[in-house]
Amino acid sequence: ANAESQQELTDGFHLVIDALKLNGIETIYGVPGIPITDLGRLAQANGMRVISFRHEQNAGNAAAIAGFLTKKPGICLTVSAPGFLNGLTALAHATTNCWPMILISGSSEREVVDLMQGDYEEMDQLAIAKPLCKAAYRVLHAEDIGIGVARAIRAAVSGRPGGVYLDLPAKLFSQVLEASKGTESLVKVIDAAPAQIPGPDAVKRAIDVLKGAKKPLIILGKGAAYAQADAEVRTFVEKSGIPFLPMSMAKGLLPDNHPQSAGAARSTALLESDVVVLVGARLNWLLSHGKGKQWGPKGSKKFIQIDIEPKEMDSNIEIAAPLVGDIGSVLNELNKAIDGKWQAPPADWVKTINDKKEQNIAKMASKLGKNSSPMDFHSALGALKQVIKERPDAILVNEGANTLDLARGIIDMYKPRKRLDVGTWGVMGVGMGSAIAAAVETGLPVLAVEGDSAFGFSGMEVETICRYQLPVTIVIFNNNGIYRGIDKDPTGRDPGTTVFVPDARYDKMMEAFGGKGYYATSPDELKRMVDEAMNSKKPALINAVIDPEAGSESGNIGNLNPQSVVGKK
Ligand code: ADP
Ligand code: MG
Prior knowledge:
40% of the residues lie in helices and 16% in strands. The protein is built from 23 helices and 19 strands. Helix 2 (12-22) runs parallel beside helix 8 (145-157) and helix 4 crosses helix 19 (431-442). The termini are far apart. The protein is globular. The strands form four sheets. A six-stranded parallel beta sheet has the order 3-2-4-5-7-6, with helices on both faces. Strands 15-14-16-17-19-18 form a six-stranded parallel beta sheet, with helices on both faces. It is α/β, with parallel strands linked by helices. Helix 3 links the parallel strand 2 and strand 3 (49-52). The chain binds adenosine-5'-diphosphate (ADP) and magnesium ion. The site of magnesium ion has 6 residues, from helix 20.
């Protein structure tokens, strides 16, 4: 009788799991602890993949990238107060990047928190999360879990995707309900991210502007990569014949060696174009806000912008032809409009781009081929460029300052959503979370190319990579410091503020957890070791020794780094 009555009951723990599974969510990234330890355990017992990290921020970064790769919200599960705050950084990062993610945190009891009576890990988490994400909800009754999870999913993936916070107080998990009532309370979200089709007048306006162009340019952003409208993007680019420029996480949407790629002629393309079609790319700092000397004289360009978020239009400068809708639907309309009767862009424009491109590629090639020891960024990246060329299905994770800026330009990508990097904030520390999620979500081999400083933010997750035996190869560009490894304390007391322990052996960190460590001092060695590591499909870390003198302060964005004008004292 006892067993029977148990079968007829459910509780908050099980309803959270059932609600996620009902909506096709199969993976949780998190760190266990009070009050969600049993939630993770039960989720695993119920067939979900539960990936336990060493720090919530890395779990959150994994969830964010899972959202980008799959168009389903990545789930991050944390404990209350400090764990929640650690996860919140990643939730804000996901929101900034327009990726769907749900941060689920356990929390302390409302009665005590609201009277500020000092509970274990007391914090008004809902209030703190609200300004940093797209939506925030709290569930107090087990029978509301279904609707709470449904709201969180819809908020995360519909319109412009983003981060959602779901607050689950400890008491909720053990609330018991009749099983049939529980089942009835669950909600399967129907058409979570509805197609948004642009009006015919908006399409006509855009086509008219495009027809008037003498030097058109298409800029593909990570919104286009996210949209998974790969065929529509390719059709639009190839049918129109317009040169395209990929933003960093849109690289590979069309291969970087595509004849229409203007990637290697970026400055010329931005400066000289007269009509620019933005496809899921914002005119934020990464595109100099669409103005200034990079873009040429004011008024020299017209913009057509495709974005799902109406408020994005005119955010920095006037948009001549806004196309509000999802990229698949919008491009589908444009493709119909240009079908058959489209005039390719003027040949002199195409030639200007191609000439510049060839020049720049030749200039770069001369820096890449050297088998130097110690390596500099170019010689080491030359080796890795070859690795990705031979393994176009591998996912490249990339962070650091110089390591990021130079790799973005040097390593060609061939397939969509294979390049994961620092995103809209240009933030360091996302590497290991991204690498883990990439491996878990796709099963593909991952190559993480990391500056030594960037790696430090999430380095302990090598244990996680070893524990789950993920096919992740990490290459540390070890130049002994942030930017470079040469700073000195002018007073002679301490190490300079941007340097690390010289000749640190990051490869031994990997070995501490049973992975394979390598130590590479030349590009040939680096190539051979990366190949061996990737062939093994096992966790590996290659410490690539880079000249501490190599690199520049702040990489390509030194202009954002204020320096004292009042002489050094
Ligand atoms: P990048 O940094 O690569 O330039 P951004 O993150 O600045 O890219 O821009 C991505 C844009 O794509 C955002 O403005 C977002 O609203 C938009 N977006 C995201 N998903 C879609 C979609 N499915 N359809 C249309 N626009 C989208
Ligand atoms: Mg460094």
